[in-house]
Write a structure and sequence with these properties.
The protein folds into 2 domains: about 190 residues, MutS, DNA mismatch repair protein, Chain A, domain 3 (Orthogonal Bundle), CATH 1.10.1420; about 220 residues, P-loop containing nucleotide triphosphate hydrolases (Rossmann fold), CATH 3.40.50.300. Helix 3 packs across helix 12, helix 4 crosses helix 12 and helix 7 crosses helix 8. The protein is built from 18 helices and 10 strands. Strands 6-7-8-4-9-10 form a 6-stranded mixed sheet, with helices on both faces. A 4-stranded mixed sheet has the order 1-5-2-3, covered by helices on one side. Strand 6, helix 14 and strand 7 form a beta-alpha-beta unit. The protein is an alpha/beta fold.
Length: about 450
């Protein structure tokens, strides 16, 4: 799956302004290295159906065997190891006879800071190797999925280094002479071994994090199918960032792959589309999704047209930015592999007549691409009506209740059909804007 920065931003996967994001719900990593690996995994999901299934199987394993995750490795462990191997060693040659003849007491007096740094560092190295040994032992168990087994065997192979047994057996009672010898050998022989182990550990940390998030939030693993025939069949789908979300059932297939959403502003259209996008992305990184069930075909990518921005420096207006994003979308749709396309209120940067003509032309063009899953929200009632007789399009709307005294209420209920709700003026009036402007 391929997702660009615009899509990740539109779906609130990562936040740059400190606001709540989806990544925070997924992050149960033990270390910064695992967190970085999870971040990278989201930006570069598996690019084939087979690879995605392998990752999902690895995440499922951790969801069923969370107790096997080693507790001895902490973020501070990896931070200390990085500092240890990147800090210059004052010993350019093995410690001599005179140096080794001095006991620990005198070494503490003569090289107090270095002595404790070495002792502290090697204890962290020992903890890390113990944790990796615990992980490697999982490979000897039953029903370990292939991708996880491959990574565990990498760890097992790296642990065959001749210094591993000595480093694992380090205790506080170790004599200075032995500590000094191990320090010299470890710095010169173990650096690349340890960094390769950290890389494998980070992958496992990312997978167990996705597993833990799936369990913690009560999400479910989706049923993944090949890219053809295209499908998205969800029950109880909800947006994970909402405290009290409304859940929805929605189904697309090869015969009806295009949904047109209508409804008043703030009625729930954008949130619903984001819920679809978030579920699609989470499914394609191998973890659970916020739904009761989801059956989804392998998608080549998710494309969003939601929050485009103008560019003053380039002299590009908001409308031109919308056109450029739509062009990028059209280029993606030329591919045969299916995409999930989420389009929210297209062409807001022009007048109503232009917006109608442009949206109408886009819908007509989108109908030529049955291999993709497409959702378009619009407050232009006339656009939906223009295509209401087309049986290839699904039409749904969000209900807004209106009372005789001019009040309104958003129910966030999704029904089949087309809405002609027009409450913009009522919102303006109820918020007191008209009264303020009429004051002299």
């Amino acid at each position: 799956m391929q997702n660009d920065k615009t899509t990740l931003k539109d779906l609130s996967i990562f936040s740059s302004d400190g606001s709540e994001d989806v990544f925070a719900l997924m992050d149960y990593t033990s270390t910064q290295a695992g967190r970085d690996m999870l971040h990278k995994h989201i930006q570069n999901p598996p690019d084939t159906f087979e690879k995605l299934k392998e990752v999902q199987d690895a995440v499922k394993f951790w969801s069923a065997h969370a107790d096997l995750w080693p507790k001895i490795i902490l973020n501070g462990t990896l931070v200390m190891l990085d500092k240890y191997f990147e800090t210059a060693d004052s010993f350019s040659a093995p410690p001599g006879v005179l140096m080794l003849s001095l006991n620990g007491f005198f070494q503490k007096l003569l090289n107090k800071q270095e002595y404790f740094f070495i002792q502290f560092s090697l204890s962290h190295l020992s903890d890390f190797l113990i944790g990796c040994t615990q992980l490697a032992a999982i490979a000897d168990g039953q029903d370990v999925p292939p991708l996880l087994l491959k990574e565990l065997n990498k760890i097992k192979d790296e642990l065959q280094h001749r210094l591993t047994p000595q480093l694992i057996s380090i205790t506080k009672e170790i004599k200075y002479a032995e500590l000094s010898r191990l320090n010299y050998k470890a710095r010169r022989e173990m650096k690349h071994v340890v960094y390769r182990l950290i890389n494998s550990y980070a992958k496992l940390d990312a997978w167990q994090s996705m597993a833990k998030a799936t369990i913690k939030h009560g999400w479910v693993f989706p049923e993944l199918t090949p890219d053809s025939p295209v499908c998205f069949d969800a029950k109880g789908l909800r947006h994970p960032l909402l405290q009290t979300p409304v859940s929805y059932d929605i189904a697309f297939d090869n015969n009806r792959n295009f949904l047109v959403l209508t409804g008043a502003n703030m009625s729930g259209k954008t949130t619903f589309m984001r819920a679809l996008g978030v579920a699609g992305l989470l499914a394609h990184i191998g973890m659970g999704v916020p739904a009761k069930s989801l059956r989804i075909s392998f998608l080549q990518g998710i494309i969003t047209n939601m929050q485009v921005e103008d560019n003053i420096l380039r002299g590009e207006s908001y409308f031109f930015a919308e056109v450029k994003r739509m062009k990028q979308t059209a280029e993606k749709l030329l591919q045969q592999q299916p995409h999930l396309v989420l389009m929210d209120e297209l062409f807001k940067g022009t007048n109503v007549h232009d917006a109608f003509e442009c949206t109408k032309a886009v819908v007509e063009g989108l109908l030529h691409h049955p291999n993709h899953l497409m959702i378009l929200s619009t407050h232009l009632y006339e656009v939906a009506k223009q295509f209401s007789a087309n049986e290839d399009i699904l039409f749904s709307y969000f209900v807004t209740t209106l009372s005789e005294d001019g009040n309104y209420k958003f129910t966030y209920e999704l029904k089949e059909g087309i809405s002609n709700d027009r409450i913009g003026y009522r919102i303006l009036q109820n918020e007191g804007v008209i009264d303020l402007l009429n004051r002299k």
